[in-house]
Amino acid sequence: VGLDLSIGVEQRKVKIPAIIKQACFDQSIKRHLTYTNACARTVNDVILKAEIRRQRTVLWCDGCKWGVASGIQKAPKNAYIALTKRTPIVLLQNTPYASKNSIVEIESFTPSHVKIDGINMPLDISFFHAMQAAYAITIHRSQGMTINQRYQLHEIEKIKKLAIGPELLYVGLTRGTHLHFVSVCESCACYKKKPRQLTSQSA
User: Fold this and answer.
1) What angle do CA 33, 200, 187 make, to 5 degrees?
2) Mean pLDDT in each 10-residue stretch from start to end of the chain (203 residues)?
3) Which pTM value belongs to this model?
4) Are 29 and 152 in contact (CB under 8 A)?
5) How far apart are CA 141 and CA 75, in angstroms?
6) Which of 25, 89, 201, 203 is the most buried (most CB within 10 A)?
7) Which residues have a Cβ under 8 Å from the Cβ of 81 and sit 6 or more positions away?
């Protein structure tokens, strides 16, 4: 199946597998690209909640202190859930362990340390200010990134109506190292779902 994308006066054709359409919030997919921050926030909350059920342990922060809890209900009510084990995070600024806009995966954590890429880092409040969950990020933030696993593209109908829609689609569809990694949710359900907000913000 071919999809014609207009970039200025240039025509680019991207070949897309016939199985590109899948249900929204496919739990087997851990990377998602969205147009809006609101959709990214919803996807992050839905997937993080499902992962917490599997991993059980969470790292929480209330803006000035943090801790480890054995589930959402055990965290302080005014705190947001930063992550659980194997949560991908995006760096919002340059850090000692990765540069801005890098996506890394949390291997493990304690109240005093977090392990990233095999390295134990001391945990302090600056870590929470520099990161956020990245199961879903916006297409804008994904520019320049390479995704080497399956990922899902959201809000297609909204993107198609935009003047910059072709550019956004091109960026979203070409982040993967292989074209068969990308799928598109058939009917984006981001605005129908209202999960408990776990993450502080979206990517």
Assistant:
1) 35
2) 41 48 72 91 86 86 89 84 86 79 88 88 88 90 88 87 87 85 76 62 46
3) 0.79
4) yes
5) 30
6) 203
7) 48, 52, 58, 59, 60, 72, 75, 198, 199
